[in-house]
Specification:
single chain; 514 residues; alpha+beta; Heat Shock Protein 90; 6-stranded mixed beta sheet; 5-stranded antiparallel beta sheet; 10 helices; 15 strands; rod-shaped
């Protein structure tokens, strides 16, 4: 429609809260978490868990390092002894000289064991209790191998070599069968353990000094890193109660900038809200001056009068001014209540819009009869369900009906209509009249507080439509101001106010038979 003007209030999220369970549930107590303590935990717990792991890795590395030089020395020993094994006339003999024997017994810490076996497994020389190798692979001549084993219930490290007797024969034999003699030397692990312990002590002892120092440094780093938060807290506490200026973010770390930005946004909204309240109080005080001044003048005039007729006339005027002041106070209270009403303070309820409109309309039937206005009501033959606050919606409809009756001439008509659009899930609440209507250029301002259309000559405070707008915003509703389509061709264009709400599905059929 070309002469239609749509006012789209800001959307308000409406979340219906479920009814409380019988008996109620107590809210879980929430303990305040320390950011300092939480960061410290996340830093120290991994550190303390990694410390034993580092000790285990250090032990394995130290053991590997300690084995390497001792294994080389043990390999040299078994090689020297193997070179002294010969076969003479089919018999294995050894030529261990004094220096060779000294090599076997040079260690004053570890016990050294050795054993020499011929190709038939008969011991030639050495310790008979040394165990034999358990290798499944064919032995390789002159290849030194190592293993761990036990001699007299003591763990030893053993190096062994298979000696090819064919290459050591003094008198050649005609046999071509492989003839391998076994030479093995073992030593206990005392020196290896001592070296491993020395390496571990050299690594672990400094860690006992470094770890407390690391804890102190972490504590100091966290304290210094969180200092900007403490400074920000001090700056905020040092502010005057009426100081709503933005917080200076020049000295704030990058990680805290989003928090400071959110606080500044909140301060800006709070400042705007306070300014609106101040302007509202100033406007209300200004608007209340006129009826209060009239009441005072009429009361003073009545006190000076001696004629009963004049006194009665002054009292009538006083009653009229009192009625006007009472109406304005009530509307101011309604507007304040509508502004402070939020979905979180009072949850929305499932309502039947036709029933709500019919109940509200009954309060205006007598007033419409007194003004000689035909007040009608139209509703569909099916329930129109919405979610809303019944008290606030009653207030919205009361103000729209009051506005329609005030601008409808005598012998005119006004209609309240409820309808729904099932396809688009929309519910419509319409109030139309055949009054003078609202000019398109005025439709931008009629929802402002205390705004009155010039030349209307209708009593009012200018707050009714402002209350309607606030309630519509809370219900995520849209308001359209149109000319009355039923007044085409007539002298007055009339007015149609349409409030569009969200339609809820009819989950539970409603029974209107009773």
């Amino acid at each position: 429609m070309p002469d239609a003007h749509r006012l789209n209030p800001p959307a308000v999220d409406v979340n219906a809260s479920n009814a409380a369970n019988e008996g109620g549930e107590q809210a879980e107590e929430r303990t305040q978490r320390s950011l300092f303590g939480e960061i410290l935990d996340w830093m120290l717990v991994p550190l303390l868990l990694l410390w034993p792991l580092s000790i285990a890795i250090t032990y394995l590395v130290a053991k590997s390092i300690a084995n390497e030089p001792f294994d080389r020395a043990l390999e040299d020993k078994v090689t020297v002894v193997a070179q002294q094994v010969k076969e003479v006339n089919g018999k294995v003999i050894t030529r261990l000289t004094g220096p060779a024997t000294d090599i076997l017994h040079a260690d004053n810490v570890d016990n050294v064991y050795y054993q020499i076996l011929d190709s038939r497994g008969i011991m030639v020389e050495g310790d008979p209790e040394m165990p034999l190798p358990t290798n499944e692979d064919p032995p390789q001549p002159w290849a030194t191998k190592f293993r761990y084993d036990f001699v007299r219930n003591t763990e030893v490290r053993i190096a062994y070599i298979y000696v090819d007797l064919h290459k050591t024969q003094v008198a050649p034999q005609l046999s071509i069968e492989p003839r391998l003699a076994l030479v093995q030397i073992g030593e206990t692990l005392e020196k290896r353990s001592q070296l491993v312990n020395q390496i571990i002590k050299g690594v672990i002892v400094p860690e006992f000094i470094i770890l407390p120092m690391a804890l102190i440094l972490v504590w100091f780093a966290l304290t210094r890193g969180l200092r900007p938060l403490a400074e920000l807290q001090q700056r905020i506490r040092a502010r005057r109660p009426d100081d709503l200026s933005p917080i200076d973010s020049g000295y704030v770390p990058e990680e805290i900038l989003p928090l400071v930005g959110s606080l500044n946004d909140m301060l800006e909204r709070l400042s705007q809200s306070i300014n609106i309240q101040k302007r509202f109080i100033a406007d209300a005080a200004h608007q209340m001056k006129t009826p209060l001044a009239g009441m005072r003048m009429q009361s003073e005039l009545a006190l000076r009068q001696t004629d009963q007729a004049e006194i009665h006339k002054s009292l009538e005027q006083l009653a009229k001014s009192s009625k006007s002041a009472t109406r304005m106070v009530n509307q101011l209270l309604a507007l304040a209540r509508a502004e402070n009403q939020t979905p979180s303070t009072k949850p929305m309820q499932l309502l039947e819009l036709s029933e709500l409109a019919r109940d509200t309309l009954q309060n205006w039937v007598q007033i419409s009869l007194n003004k000689k206005i035909d007040l009608g009501f139209e509703q569909p033959d099916y329930p129109v369900l919405i979610k809303g606050d019944p008290i606030m919606l009653h207030e919205l409809l009361n103000n729209l009906i009051d506005n329609a009756l005030n601008y409808t001439p005598a012998d005119g008509n006004a209609t309240v209509r409820v309808r729904a659009d099932e396809k688009n899930k929309l519910a419509f609440l319409e109030i139309e009249d055949n009054g003078p209507g609202i000019a398109p250029h005025e439709r931008e301002h009629i929802f402002e507080r205390f705004y009155r259309i010039l030349g209307s000559n209708v009593e009012g405070s200018g707050l009714g439509l402002a209350i309607v707008r606030e309630i519509a915003q809370q219900h995520d509703a849209e308001i359209d101001i149109l000319n009355n389509p039923h007044c085409k061709g007539q002298k007055s264009p009339g007015c149609l106010v349409r409030v569009t709400l969200r339609l809820e599905p009819n989950i539970v059929p409603l029974d209107y038979s009773t």
